[in-house]
Design goal:
TIM Barrel, Lyase, Ornithine Decarboxylase, Chain A, domain 1, elongated
């Protein structure tokens, strides 16, 4: 039989989370962000759950071709725009909208020969200092784009660096609004954290930043996949989000330890009393972080316990003693939920696992290894 590890993509959760974004920003259209292969979920696997979006936003042309191949005829946005002149030919052929964030991209548009002008999103660097025109150069870039016959509609765009934290968005929002106040065009500024915390209908009473922002388009990414954009201030349940991915495995062996026994490479865990551990068919080659320390939460038969010792390439070990002490029991073949939904309905948020590993849920989702078999479950379980 196959090695007992698998990932499940929950179509119902994707639909639910997308609806939650619409609820947070009812007057806006919603991009479903499917960059990084839909945050590790797989564009093709996630498509049915996200096809209720108003558009798909992603990074590269290969991803755009995959979305079009699925039959999507609505808007598709390249979030980083084009990287070379010939990319514009495919934008014309596939009817792709694209971001413009630098003079070089305007230069390419100026030399592009097309019968169908392009819809572009002009990005401002309002303080995050990654991509985009500075406020001082933004209007000149808009004027130059607006004069090109290759350009149809110009939308206005920026990205907030601290929407998930105490600093908030007010400092960047003020810059964006000052520069764009009298410019025509739809606006898109809201990622997951901005949509949930600072949209016009947000009820975030304890926010350190009372700013409220309205977007013609919102661009939720991580929230659509069931992870909280401002964890640990809020968890996924606080925002009404459901996990869209479950990583599960089984126990393939057990060991009974006496006090003083060590577990795994480096003997990093030493038992201080008799205990039973379970060996799980999951390791860092499956995408489970090697940096996950002893104490990382895990569900065994739907009951929360912890990992012990170092994660190895193909295995990790978990503490079964809490289950035995409570009479639940666990052993060979028991279900282990690394994150997501257990069979009994219990949920382990990927954010809890990521926090223990010193990272974020995004990284764990995107790290799911190709060797892990993935299935899609379309069931109304929310």
């Amino acid at each position: 039989m196959p090695r007992p590890i698998s990932a499940t993509i929950h179509t119902d959760a994707l639909r639910h989370n997308l609806a939650r974004m619409r609820q947070a920003a009812p007057d806006a259209r919603v991009w479903a962000i499917v960059k990084a292969n839909a945050y590790g979920h797989g564009i093709e696997r996630a498509f049915e759950g996200l096809r209720g979006a108003d558009g798909f936003a992603l990074l590269d042309l290969e991803e755009a071709q995959r979305v079009r191949a699925l039959g999507w005829r609505g808007p598709v946005l390249l979030l980083e725009g084009v990287f070379e002149l010939r990319d514009l030919e495919l934008c014309s052929r596939l009817d792709l909208w694209h971001t413009v964030h630098c003079e070089e991209q305007i230069d390419m548009l100026a030399t592009h020969k097309t019968n169908l002008p392009h819809r572009v999103f002009l990005k401002m660097n309002s303080g995050m200092n990654r991509l985009g025109f500075t406020p001082e150069r933004y209007r000149a870039a808009w004027t130059r784009l607006n004069a090109l016959p290759q350009v149809d509609e110009i939308s206005l765009m920026t990205h907030f660096g601290d929407a998930d934290g105490a600093l908030g968005i007010a400092h960047q929002l003020a810059v964006f609004e000052r520069v764009t106040r009298d410019l025509p065009g739809e606006r898109t500024v809201s990622n997951s954290a901005t949509t949930l915390r600072f949209s016009a209908t947000a009820t975030e009473a304890d926010s350190a930043d009372p700013s409220r922002v309205e977007s013609d388009w919102v661009r939720p990414g991580i929230a659509v996949y069931g992870s909280s954009p401002d964890f640990p201030q809020h968890n996924a349940a606080d925002w009404g989000l459901a996990p869209a991915m479950t990583l599960s495995a089984k126990i393939i062996g057990t060991q009974d330890l006496v006090a003083g026994s060590s577990v795994g490479y480096g003997s990093s865990f030493v038992a201080d009393k008799p205990m039973r551990i379970g060996v799980v068919a999951c390791g860092y080659a499956d995408g489970y972080g090697r940096v996950c320390p002893t104490g990382t939460p895990v569900l065994v038969n739907g009951v929360r316990t912890r990992t012990v010792g170092r994660v190895s390439m193909d295995m990790l070990t978990v503490d079964l003693q809490p289950l035995l002490d409570t009479g639940v029991g666990a052993g060979f073949g028991s279900e282990v939920t690394l994150w997501g939904r257990a069979s009994n309905g219990a949920v382990l948020s990927i954010d809890d696992v990521a926090q223990a590993a010193g990272t974020i849920g995004y990284e764990l989702m995107c790290a799911l290894a190709q060797r892990v078999p993935v299935s899609v479950l379309d069931a109304d379980a929310i």
